[in-house]
Amino acid sequence: MKKREKWLRSLVCMAVLTTFPMMMGTAEASEEPTAANDKVIQAPVTVDSRDLTYNNLSGDFVASGDVSITQGTMTIKADEIYGNSKTSIVSTDGNMRIIDPTAQTDLIGTTVHYNYKDKTGTMVKAKGQVQGDYIQGEDINIASDKTTFKNGSSTKCPAKHPDWRLEAKEVELFPDGYVLAHDATFYLKDKAVYHTDRYEKEPDEDHSFIPHPGYNSSDGFYIKQDLKLPLFVDGLNAFLNWGYYSRHDFRALGGLQYHWNGQMLRIVTGDVEDSDDEWINKKIEYQWKMFDRRIGNSKFHYRLEASHGLWEDSRRQSWHDEYEAYISHDPINITSKLTLDLGAGYQVIKESYDDSTKNGMIYDAKLTQTFSPKFKVWTGYHYIHDNERLFDYDRPDLEREWRSGFRYSWNEKDAVGFIIRYNVDTDELFERIYFFEKDLHCWKMRVIHEPDDGDGISIKFSTKIW
Asked: Are 316 and 293 spatial neighbours (Cβ–Cβ below 8 Å)?
């Protein structure tokens, strides 16, 4: 056990201390290192083209003919590119394609000005995928805190003629998954079904207002739907998340939520279920979240959250207070296909039922090897101080866990995977998880089998949400 922890610490330190030289390649030119480059870990940069002129003093270059600029997993393609290797800025008057699998981005734009180091830029018109959303629009602005575009559409349905889409005068896509659309209209095929002056999708929403069915061993068959009504103040919404379950009948969670400047305040009441199919009734709860924010121009992000509410299950009732601060680092490119994710946090939980207070650290480390777009494997370590809780709802399964897995897709619509969870404290296997994913045009299906959890099986159908 100690050897395992020592290995993990050594791996983390090695990844953080590793640096990468910057270089230009075929036709090639070398980039002189700068003080800024010495301080920040950067993956190598290569430029491939049929013709390339490069000024070693200024860093200016002109590449033409099947141009391809690569840094880590990101690739930029165009017929002709003007750029500067010192500022990392590239431009074109024609079309430019930006491919970044780690950011779920594959975008083709015209009249492009882009910084491949900061991953920021502008496009006059563009079409493609950004952060997992399929968009098309005008005046695209890609910034570190959000991507915006005007007079366009957005959907997660990849079809050429999507079953549903959102059209708006302006759409804002945030890195944490929050979406804000102004003067928005929803379409089913070519029929407008709903219009609102302001539409919001929270980062933790996993489906749209379209009802979707499913099955799992605990709940039986179910159908769920999320409803949201914008109110008289920008950012203020009333919401109702309801579901009918063959083993629980009707259950719902409702309330008010206010979203502003990357923060959210909610007042909720009703029944809610966690990822382990554990239920809790929240008589009333007040929640505040500050979504993921970058710390200055560094590679670090942080998020904060706090809640105070009256919880009840079949055994007890308690005023539950919870506070958490978490900091994480941008994915570290150990190689072009191997990345390391690191994070740490601090959590405090208080219960009035037994006048208890639990607090402690959280640590996360995850290595991901992407062999190809079809196949990737990962392994990671998770630690939380003291996983004992008054309620089963939202209770961590393990204090120290080693989790590994893979995902393989043999075509664009089907994928299989396997996850193994290992209890480091008891030095034994905790759980095996098998899953199958099926792309059903603009819907998706996920089947999960957990043989170590009472032969648990779940089948989930959901729309590819806006």
From this structure: no
Q: Show me where the domains of the chain are located.
A: 1-93, 212-463
Handedness of CA 434, 225, 234, 289 (dihedral sign): negative
- Closest among 177, 128, 123, 131 to 153, alpha carbons compared: 128
Task: Give me the CATH code for the 212-463 domain, please.
Answer: 2.40.160.50
Say if residues 60 and 75 touch (Cβ distance below 8 Å): no
Asked if 120 contacts 105 with a C-beta cutoff of 8 angstroms, the reply is no
- The pLDDT tens digits of the residues spanning 379-436 come to 999 999 888 888 888 888 899 999 999 999 998 788 999 999 999 999 999 999 999 9
Q: What is the pLDDT of residue 29?
A: 41
Q: What is the C-alpha to C-alpha distance for residues 239 and 225, in angstroms, rounded to an integer?
A: 11
Residue reference for tokens 């068959």: 221
Please list, in sequence order, all residues whose beta carbon lies within 8 angstroms of the beta carbon of residue 169, skipping any fewer than 6 positions away.
150, 151, 182, 183
CA nearest neighbour of 185 among 202, 208, 205, 164: 164
- The CB-side HSE value for 379 (13 A sphere, CA atoms) comes to 5
- 464 closest CA partner among 102, 126, 132, 101: 132
Rounded to an integer, what distance in angstroms lies between the CA atom of residue 11 and that of residue 3? 12
Give the residue from 331, 433, 338, 417 showing the smallest Cα distance to 374: 417
Residue with tokens 């919404």: 237
Distance CA 420, CA 167 (A): 42
Alpha-carbon gap, residue 23 to 364, rounded angstroms: 32
Of the two residues 117 and 210, the one the predictor is more confident about is 117
In 373-454 the beta strands, taken as DSSP E runs, fall at 375-384, 400-408, 414-423, 428-440, 443-450
190 — phi, psi (to 5°)? Answer: -105, 15
pTM: 0.67
